[in-house]
Design goal:
Blueprint lengths: L9 E5 L4 H12 L3 E8 L6 H12 L4 E6 L33 H16 L3 E3 L15 H13 L2 H4 L5 E3 L7 H10 L24 H13 L11
Parallel strand pairs: 1-2, 1-4, 2-3, 4-5
Helix pairs in contact: 1-6, 6-7
Length: 231
């Protein structure tokens, strides 16, 4: 059954439909926040995650859940938005082609605008700098810099109603994230992490996101509920 929604201070939570963002939503709920979930239809090829985000937001008691059409896929340059760039099935050196240019900057800026209108001073994001793919916008330096920007660029910030950008998973391993979510009642079978699922939503099992997810469940000693297909 979904959690009863309305609680304490308002917060905006970025919910992608993946494992990390589901855990962040559960953590915000544990801290007695009334959570306003925000998901982006940004031109991603793995659109099954939009359905997952809907189920996660409902299960974890979001007060409201908005799916915003904000196409940044036209920019290109990423295997997650450009059909001409294959999703790699092996680790690569440096920043991988699954990096989406400026994605978290654009997402947080939109979340900031909604938060200001809602009167929410807290924004949550599932950024992680331990078990992750090396994206530059998932680092502590980025989160700190965006929080500074948020308080310089908004009326609320100038008037002393400071915004706080929370990335509670930042220094956690994938196993620690999974154990935390299990404790909080997250149903990970509803989440989608795969960058290259098939038409039925089955995970490829070989992309970077699948490898990190599968290893995380193994390290956590938790049964992996992911449905995989094998090419």
């Amino acid at each position: 059954m979904p959690v009863v929604a309305d609680m304490g201070e308002k917060s905006v939570v970025l919910v992608s439909g993946g494992l990390d963002s589901a855990t962040v939503l559960a953590l915000a709920r544990e801290q007695n926040h009334s959570c306003y979930a925000l998901t982006f239809d940004y031109g991603q090829r793995h659109r099954i995650e939009l359905d997952a985000a809907h189920h996660v937001a409902k299960l974890l008691g979001a007060v409201d859940h908005r799916v915003v059409q904000l196409d940044i896929g036209w920019i290109g340059g990423s295997a997650l938005t450009d059909n001409d760039i294959p999703v790699p099935d092996a680790p690569s050196d440096g920043i991988p082609v699954t990096y989406v240019p400026a994605r978290n900057t654009v997402f947080l800026a939109t979340a900031l605008g909604w938060a200001e209108v809602l009167g929410a001073q807290d924004i949550y994001i599932g950024a992680n700098a331990v078990d992750y793919s090396g994206y530059p916008d998932c680092r502590p330096e980025f989160i700190q810099a965006f929080e500074k920007l948020a308080n310089l660029a908004t009326r609320a910030g100038v008037e002393g109603k400071a915004f706080h950008i929370h990335a509670p998973l930042m220094l956690m391993s994938k196993a620690e994230i999974i154990r935390t979510g299990v404790r909080l009642g997250v149903d990970y079978s509803l989440t989608v992490s795969c960058y290259n699922p098939d038409l039925d939503g089955l995970a490829c099992g070989v992309c970077d996101a699948c490898r990190l997810r599968r290893q995380g469940f193994a390290d956590a000693g938790v049964a992996d509920p992911t449905r995989y297909y094998y090419r």
